[in-house]
Amino acid sequence: MRLCLILVLVLARASVALAHGDEDHSDDAGASVAVSSISLPEHVTYHEHVRPIIEANCVACHSEGRIAAYAPFTAAEDVVWAGDDIKFHVINGIMPPWPPSRANLPLKQDRSLSDEEIAIIAAWADAGAELGDPAEYAPAPSDGFELVEVRADLILQLEEPYAPDPDVLDDYRCFALPLEIDSPRYITGFEFIPDVAEMAHHNIVYLFDEEAKRAVQRRNYADGRPGWPCYGGTGLSIEGDAIGGWAPGASPVIAPEGTGFLIRPGQQIVVEMHYNLWTSRQPDQSQVVLQLEAAERELAELMIVAMAAPVEIPCPAGAEGAQCEREAAIERVARLYGEDARYTPDYLLRECGQSRADYATNTGDRAIGYCDYPINETLTLYGVSGHMHELGRSFRLELNPESEAPLLLLDIPRWDFHWQGDYYFVEPLQVSYGNVLRISCIWDNSLSDDPRYVVWGEGTSDEMCFGTLTARKP
Fold first, then answer.
1. Pairing of strands 259-263, 185-193
2. For the CA atoms of 104, 105, 109, 111, what is the dihedral angle to 10 degrees?
3. Residue 278: which pLDDT band, with cuts at 50, 70 and 90?
4. Above pLDDT 70, what percent of the chain?
5. 176 φ, ψ to 5°?
6. Which among 138, 167, 171 is positioned nearest to 47, based on CA atoms?
C-alpha cells in the first residue's frame, strides 16, 4: 500500500533523531486478561450470562451470510460446542478482532470485550459450558457491535474479469472505472468486495480529474488485458487523490456525519489492486460500492493524508549469506517491481532526515522504523489506519510524542496482517501548526520462513510502514 506521492499534500518534512523513535512497546507480545480479579456470578450459565455477550458482540459476524458464517453462533448448541475455543480466543484478545489497544483515543465501532465479559465467558467454559434456563435470558443493555452497511448507490466493477499475470507472485494492476454521475456528489460510504479474497492483498481507490482521461486511455488495455501494471502508484503522469482503500480484515466505512469526498461529473476512479498469488490465481472482478449524497448538502470535504517510515530489517541471528545484505535486497525489489523501487529505501531515509547509521542497532528479531511529520496548518482529524505486512510486530501513530501530553492515535501492540482497518475517533481531533505526528513500526524477521534483509517493497513478503489519516480540508 504505497502512497509516497501523497506525502506532500499537507505535511512538511523535518529532521529527526532515531533516539526518540525506539519506543519500548513493552506490551508488543500481548497479554491475557487476569480473570481471577473479576467478581463473577456464583453460577454462570449460557442463557443468563454468556448469551447476551455473544449476541451483542459476536453474532454480527458469526451468522449466515457474514464473514464468519463457517462458525455460526446463532444456536445455543453451536456456542456450547465451541465453548473452550471461544474462551481461548477471548482470553488472548484474538476475538472479537479489535487490534487497537486500550491506550488509544476512543474509537467508534469498538469490538473489544470488557474484562468482566471475558471473565464470564472463561468461567462458563471452565464450569462445563452449562446452558441454563432460556427464560433467564435478557438482552445486553447496549446494542453491542453491528456491521456497518453501505447503501449501494453506485457499484463500480470491471466489464470483464482480469486474469492475474502468470509470471509474478505479486501483481499490481490499476483499473479505470468511470463515474457515471450527472451532477456533483459526495461519497459518504465505501465498501470493497473482493471477488477472490485469497488473492486480494490490498487496494487503493484514487479520484482523477477529467484531464487524466488521455493518460488513462494510453495505458488501459495496452497489453491486451483490462487495466495496466502499476507498481508503486497508479503509473499515470497526473496525480490523483486517494479517497479510500481496503486491506484484509477491513470493514465497510461510513464517513463521519456531515462529511464526504466530493466527486464531479467527468472525473473517474482508478483502483490500484495488489494481488498476492501465492495460494490462488483466478480471474478477478471485484467491486467498489459507493454510498452517495447530493452536493446540495454542502458537506465538509474530506481528504486522505499519508505517512510512511523507512524499512531497514536485518536478517535474524543465525541467518547468513548474500541475501542478508542490504544491496541484495535493493536489487531484488528493483528486479521485481521496477527501477523506481530501487530508490525508495534511500528516499524514505532522506525524507525522514535519517541515514542508515540511525538504524544500526536494528536486529532481525526487533527492527524499528519511524518518521516524524510536523503539521503546517490546522486540520480536523476523523480517523486513522496503519499498514504493515506479515513480519509486523506492532504499529503506532502518535501526536506530539515528545510533549508532556502525547496522544496515541493508533496503537496496535500485536500486529495481525489479516485484521486491518480504518478506525474513526469518537470525537474529531483538531491539530494545528507546530504539532508533530510520528509513525512507528516494529518488525520481527525471525517470523519469515526464508529470512533475508528486507527493505520497503511491494510484495507481501516485503515490508512497509504506512499510515493514513482521514481529515477535513481547511
1. antiparallel
2. 30
3. confident
4. 91
5. -90, 125
6. 138
